[in-house]
Structures are given as structure tokens and as C-alpha cells.
Design goal:
Strand order of the largest sheet: 2-1-3-4
Helix content: 25-40%
CATH superfamily: Glutaredoxin
Distance between the termini: 13 Å
Structural class: alpha+beta
Order of helices and strands: EHEHEEH
Shape: globular
Mean pLDDT: 96
Number of helices: 3
């Protein structure tokens, strides 16, 4: 399983999901707001008002930190 995280600096939920993925040996690629994408690109991808982080697992959009943890538990991955 591979993950993609769209994060922003100093976001506690972004840090939390990275720790969880790392702990369970789930490889991830991280894109950082302000460096790799801007607000317009982020909203175009995830919808107006979306929050950080946004996570994709195997190219499937899962959602934010809470949704990702829930999904991983449902799939018995954590």
C-alpha cells in the first residue's frame, strides 16, 4: 500500500497521520502546501473548504486524518 499526503507546515493532524503511516510501514509521498501546490490547486483537487491533511491510499481519496485512521482500522491495517 502506498499513500500520498497533502499537508501544510505546522499542522498537528498532518504530523499525526505521518507518524501513523510510518509506524505501520506504509510508504508515503508528501506534497506540502506553499512548496508543491497552492490553495487554488488544493481546492480544485479536493473541493472548496477542504482541510489538511488530505490522504490518498493506492490512488483512492480517503480524506483527512480521522477518516484515514478509521479506514485503516476498518481494513485491519492498524
Amino acid at each position: 500500500m502506498k499513500a500520498v499526503i497533502y499537508s501544510k507546515p505546522d499542522c498537528p493532524y498532518c504530523e499525526k497521520i505521518k507518524v501513523i503511516l510510518f509506524h505501520f510501514a506504509i510508504e508515503y509521498k508528501e506534497y506540502i502546501y506553499g512548496r508543491d501546490f497552492d490553495r487554488t490547486q488544493f481546492y480544485a483537487e479536493f473541493g472548496e473548504g477542504s482541510t489538511f491533511p488530505q490522504v490518498l491510499l493506492d490512488n483512492k481519496h480517503i480524506g483527512g486524518c480521522t477518516d484515514t485512521i478509521k479506514y485503516l482500522k476498518e481494513q485491519n491495517l492498524v
